[in-house]
Amino acid sequence: MNRLNAKVAIVTGAGRGIGRSTAKLFAAEGAKVAVLSLTPANVDAVVAEIEGAGGTALGVVCDISDADQVKAAIDKVVAAYGRIDILVNNAFDPSVPNSSVKDLSVEQLQRNFETGPIAYLRTMQGCYPYLKMSGKGRVINFGSMAGVLGLTGYGPYNMAKEAVRALTRTAAREWGPDKITVNNILPLAETWDSAANVPAPTNALARYGAPENDVAPVVLFLASEDAQFVTGASLTADGGAIIDSAR
């Protein structure tokens, strides 16, 4: 416990699934957590859960594809807490990831980039001065095993997520001298729609991950002192779906 004591963390896409589980775990470990999500009801619910458990949270409704909203969100966090130590880029638009390559429109691809690497770039740039001042800044971005595998039917999503990994590797090298680590997580998790017709997993452990037990703890590791010498990496919290192929 208290592995993130006195830290301030921003978690995007924190209204549900992996983001929600991460925000709650960070708060339980002592962080003050900014809960960013597009849906006000989800923001309020997660903040209430954190505060009900004795943690500290700030709810911020934010469309991460909107540059002005991203800036306003970061300003709100700094005004409230005075610092930013950890940035978790988890949000994306779940309504537009699916398309074959032959049918993919530029507009759909652009939407995946707007809510993926472009949004992540904006949050990283906005948080950078504070992460540098922290002296132990942490950025954790969400890539995807789908991009590594070239999963069929996910053309725009795969392309955007691999761009996130390229951004992460580059920032890891550029920001290392500032004592900021930048890493990826590539999860395999059935996050919020357990009633969906999800195909059986073919990973080594033969199951999907639970956000709260299998993915959020990996995010916590990368945010903690334990990962101080890890940067530019892609950690595959996927039960062995892409063993040795994420580099």
UniProtKB/TrEMBL annotation:
<keyword id="KW-0560">Oxidoreductase</keyword>
<dbReference type="InterPro" id="IPR057326">
    <property type="entry name" value="KR_dom"/>
</dbReference>
<feature type="domain" description="Ketoreductase">
    <location>
        <begin position="7"/>
        <end position="195"/>
    </location>
</feature>
<comment type="similarity">
    <text>Belongs to the short-chain dehydrogenases/reductases (SDR) family.</text>
</comment>
<dbReference type="Pfam" id="PF13561">
    <property type="entry name" value="adh_short_C2"/>
</dbReference>
<dbReference type="InterPro" id="IPR036291">
    <property type="entry name" value="NAD(P)-bd_dom_sf"/>
</dbReference>
<dbReference type="InterPro" id="IPR020904">
    <property type="entry name" value="Sc_DH/Rdtase_CS"/>
</dbReference>
<dbReference type="InterPro" id="IPR002347">
    <property type="entry name" value="SDR_fam"/>
</dbReference>
<dbReference type="GO" id="GO:0016491">
    <property type="term" value="F:oxidoreductase activity"/>
</dbReference>
<protein>
    <submittedName>
        <fullName>NAD(P)-dependent dehydrogenase (Short-subunit alcohol dehydrogenase family)</fullName>
    </submittedName>
</protein>
